[in-house]
Each structure stands twice: as C-alpha cells, then as structure tokens.
Design brief:
Blueprint: H1 3-23, H2 28-37, H3 44-60, H4 68-76, H5 80-83, H6 110-118, H7 123-129, E1 135-139, E2 156-157, E3 163-166, H8 176-179, E4 183-185, H9 188-197, E5 204-207, H10 214-222, E6 228-233, H11 236-239, H12 242-249, E7 255-258, H13 264-268, E8 275-281, H14 302-322, E9 323-333, H15 342-351, E10 356-358, E11 366-368, E12 371-374, H16 376-379, E13 384-390
Parallel strand pairs: 5-6, 5-8, 6-7, 8-9
Antiparallel strand pairs: 1-3, 1-4, 2-3, 9-13, 10-13, 11-12, 12-13
C-alpha cells in the first residue's frame, strides 16, 4: 500500500468505527481485524501503519466525528506530512477542499467532558486517559515467583507484589510461560483492586461480577487455593471463559454460578449472610480504560450512565445480602465519574444504615469521597474507584 492508500484505508475504517459507535456495533479492534481479513494484500507494515492512524484519529476527536474523513482531517491539521497525502492519487484520499471542516479535537463529547470536570478530572488526567496503555502482567503465585521468572522480553517490576510491565506490545499469549499458566495479562490497577479485597486463606469469598474471571484467579492465587471462592455473573459467554483459564492457572474455584438478571439471589441463597468478603467489580462506563478502548467514549449517553448507576446500586444491594455480620464488601468500578464511584457509595449508605465506608490502605491512589481513585496520570494504571464497605 502507498502512504496515501493507508490514509484512505484509515478513513474507511473510521467510517465503520463511527457507525458502530452510534449503533452499538462491534468494537474498533474487531472491525480492524475484519477489514484486513478481507484485504490479504495488505502486509504487516501496512496493517500496523493504518491501525496507528486510526487510533491517533480516535484519540484526537472528542465529539463523535461526522465521518472518517473529518476525523482524519483533524489529524492532518496538526501533521503537514499527513495533509500532503490527501493528493487524489489512485487509492488515496481526494485533495482537501477549501471549505472542508475537520472534526473537533477534545477529551470526549461535551456533555461527558463536563461530567468528568465535575468529577475532578483536570486536563492532565484527561490527557493521560487517551495515551497508549502499556502491557501489564500478573505473575501467578500458584505457579511462579516474580523474582525467579524469566520471560522472552524484558519486563519491569511494578509496585504491586506480582506485577510486571512490558513497554512494547508483545504476543504474550503465544509465550510458553503464558500457556503454562505462569502469567496472566492484567492491568497494574486491576491488580491493586484485588489487593484491596485483602483475601485470606480459609475464607468464603464471592466474586459477584466475575466476568471472565481475571480477578477471581488473582484471589485464588492470593489465598494459595485455600479459600472457598464463588465466581458469579449474568454473562454466560464471559463466565464460560473462566474454567479453561482456571485450569491453566492451577486455580481452585469452588463454584461458578450463572445468575438470572433480577433473580440473582435464587442462585446465591446458600451464601446469604455467610461470605467473609464480597467483591463487586460492577459493570460501568469503562471511562478509566479509554487508553485501551478510546472509541468507547463515543458510545456513552446520559441515559446509559443512568442505567449503569441503577445497576451498580442493584449489585451492591445483592452483595450486602451475602456479607456476614462484620464482613467486607469491596466496590470497584473502572470509571473516573463520580456517578459511578463516590455517589454510589453515598447512596448505598443511605439505603443501608449501620454500614460504614472506608478507603483501602494502599500505596497508590488518592482519596475521592469515601473511597480511593487511581488514574493513569497519577498512578500509571487504568482509572479505578474502590471503596470498602463493612457491616456492623
């Protein structure tokens, strides 16, 4: 592909990504993979260059662009070499018209930027939210020790006890160490969320929104497989990924429960008021993960955030039914919006007199409301909010 043809390919992909964001279609990475699957002539350098152009444009545009061309024009506005490739050549984009307007640069759509600002997200933190994320690993303590593990590429030890960081992209899932279960891909901040649970051997622990089980596996490792861990979720597809992951990791999960939305306690009744610790890693907007999925900020609407807040209240109330007297309920969201963090804790305490909330004692994060917030700018992690709730 010529450089101009790469620009045109990026424009076509951006058109598809914009349409999918508006219709809640496939994510950008899946669209990019499908695009090149149909274009076998594109070499690895072409694919890498086009992908880079696409994500640069997505990160730059705050409002949802009207078209892929407008998004690429915004990028060309600050890159003269890129602008020169709008030359009308074969397979390249048409020359830039005198009256053409580029898409608007910014952090996010205006309404969402305003909510982030109201949540204390300043320009520095906002900019860090749109940088490229490093690749973090968790060394599986059931099978390996961080200080003794040799990997195919250099990795930097991080502050979390089992965390390593690769600065460059790597096909980790092809490594023998991954296939043997020595390592898992897990953001440094996500590892700290598991540390916040403070799981101990001999306890009964419910991972209420387990998903594919990344945190479930970390809890099993933290307790040396000496805890009764129940992994529950309403998503059959994601929960189905846990069993093979647990087998590879050598992790013992006592029970995996598929929950019926709205009737969750029917399956969870055996653990009512019996769990020592309940982790609620609640469904959320994912605003703390924009480094990895920058187009997801185009998918949010005020109505969606309202529904997510209601769902977070719902799963917190379920978690409260499972915790034994004196037990611990850990609330986590990968969001930097107060409506998905401090405000949910305040609402919970208003509904549940006799409970109290505190921030976990960790060497990362900053106080926010009655919990703790981690950000890419301050902590080099994805964005998270976490709070500890205890019953009397």
């Amino acid at each position: 592909m010529t450089p101009a043809a790469r620009v045109q390919a990026a424009i076509e992909l951006l058109d598809a990504i914009i349409e999918a964001a508006q219709s809640k279609g496939a994510p950008a990475d899946r669209l990019i993979a499908a695009y090149f699957k149909q274009r076998r002539y594109a070499g690895s350098k072409d694919r890498r260059a086009v992908r880079e152009l696409v994500y640069r444009a997505v990160r730059l545009c705050g409002e949802v662009p009207a078209s892929g061309r407008e998004a690429m024009l915004a990028l060309a506005q600050e890159d003269a070499q890129l602008a020169a490739l709008f030359d009308g050549s074969r397979h390249g984009p048409a020359p830039i018209g005198a009256d053409e307007q580029p898409a608007t640069a910014g952090l996010a759509p205006q309404w969402l930027s305003e909510r982030l600002a109201a949540s204390g997200i300043d320009a520095r933190v906002g900019a860090a939210l749109l940088e490229r994320a490093p690749l973090d690993l968790r060394v599986n303590a059931l099978k390996a020790r961080r200080e003794a593990l040799a990997l195919p590429e250099p990795a930097e030890p991080l502050l979390a006890p089992h965390a390593l960081r690769l600065e460059a992209a790597a096909n980790v899932e092809a490594w023998p160490e991954y296939r043997a279960g020595f390592i898992e891909i897990q953001d440094h901040g996500s590892q700290w969320m598991c540390e916040a649970v403070a799981a101990e051997a001999g306890e009964t622990i419910v991972d209420l929104c387990a998903g594919a089980g990344g945190k479930t596996l970390a809890l099993a490792a933290a307790t040396g497989n000496d805890a009764e861990i129940i992994a529950a979720d309403t998503d059959k597809r994601r929960l189905g990924n846990l069993a093979p992951r647990a087998e590879r990791a050598g992790a013992r999960i006592a029970q995996t429960l598929l929950l019926d939305p709205g009737r969750e306690m029917e399956a969870l009744r055996p653990w009512e008021a019996k769990a020592d610790r309940v982790l609620v890693d609640a469904p959320c907007s994912g605003s703390g993960t924009w480094r990895r999925n920058p187009e997801s900020r185009w998918r949010l609407t005020p109505a969606m955030l309202g529904r997510l807040a209601a769902l977070q209240d719902h799963v917190l109330d379920i978690g409260a039914q499972l915790v034994r007297p004196g037990g611990t309920l850990v609330f986590v969201t990968c969001s930097l919006l107060d409506s998905e963090g401090p405000q949910r804790i305040d609402a919970f305490l208003a509904r549940h007199p006799g409970w109290r909330a505190t921030a976990p004692d960790m060497p990362v994060g900053r106080p926010r409301g009655k919990g703790l917030r981690l950000t890419p700018y301050h902590d080099g992690t994805d964005g998270f909010f976490v709070a500890i709730l205890r019953s009397s």
